[in-house]
Design a protein that fits this description.
The chain is mostly helical and about 240 residues long. It contains 8 helices and 4 strands, in the order αααβαβββαααα. The protein folds into 2 domains: about 55 residues, no CATH class; about 160 residues, no CATH class.
């Protein structure tokens, strides 16, 4: 949903990255740093050239700290959408399918700085086909963020601008689904339900911003996330 620039997930991963950085800064050998980079790159299944702090390294550090690999194989439908988006020239780099979200209440994220997208797939859901369709709809939405970014759409700074941007992105996702002949992956009913959800979310963001003393999106969104985490809200 959000064009989130956060690349580190969880306090433990952040501490691991910070400690590694401190070791290098306090005189750890270049060989040690190279060994860390190479090992985490191997563990992530990525090239050594993958930049530290990327989503690949974030997931690798998380696996080191938590002992769990949340990555899943990319289903065919999602792979098809990704290849279409890349073929269109949208700024897309890597797609990651995860068994749990990186951020509470968020199903998928496009990072405009890296071109990476992660999406949550509920692999435990009895109807696997329905779970993949839902995830495909989220991928279409994030690809649409990339499409709009290519055309110079600015990241929204206010709550009303966020509402407009998200609604326009979902409408574009619906058009892409129709143009790519996969309209069943994002129907007009899903599109309209998402816009209604945005209508419900706007006053929640405004209330969270009011509590935080600032109605800017940069303050209101984290404030709402904090309330969600504290009270266990799913949306």
């Amino acid at each position: 949903m959000r064009n989130d620039e956060c690349l580190m997930s969880g306090r433990r991963a952040s501490r691991a990255a910070r400690h590694m950085t401190e070791d290098v800064a306090t005189g750890a050998s270049a060989g040690q740093a190279d060994a860390w980079t190479s090992w985490t790159s191997w563990f992530a299944g990525e090239d050594v050239d993958e930049p530290f702090g990327s989503l690949a390294h974030t997931l690798a550090i998380e696996r080191l700290m938590e002992g769990h690999d949340r990555r899943l194989p990319i289903p065919d439908a999602l792979d098809y959408l990704w290849r279409r988006g890349v073929a269109e020239g949208y700024p897309l780099r890597r797609l990651y399918v995860l068994d749990s979200p990186l951020h509470l209440g968020v199903a998928a994220t496009y990072n405009s700085a890296t071109g990476d997208v992660w999406v949550r797939l509920d692999a435990a859901r009895p109807d696997r086909g329905a779970a993949e369709v839902e995830a495909a709809g989220h991928v279409l939405h994030e690809i649409s963020h990339a499409a709009r970014a290519r055309h110079g759409t600015r990241r929204p700074a206010t709550i009303p601008a966020y509402h407009r941007d998200e609604a326009a992105t979902q409408r574009l996702a619906h058009r892409l689904a129709r143009r790519w002949r996969v309209a069943h992956l994002l129907t007009h009913e899903v599109r309209d339900a998402y816009v209604r959800l945005l209508d419900e979310l706007q006053p929640e963001l405004e209330a969270a911003g009011t509590l935080a003393g600032d109605l800017s999106l940069a303050t209101a969104a984290p404030a709402l996330d904090g309330l969600r985490a504290r009270h266990g809200w799913n949306r």
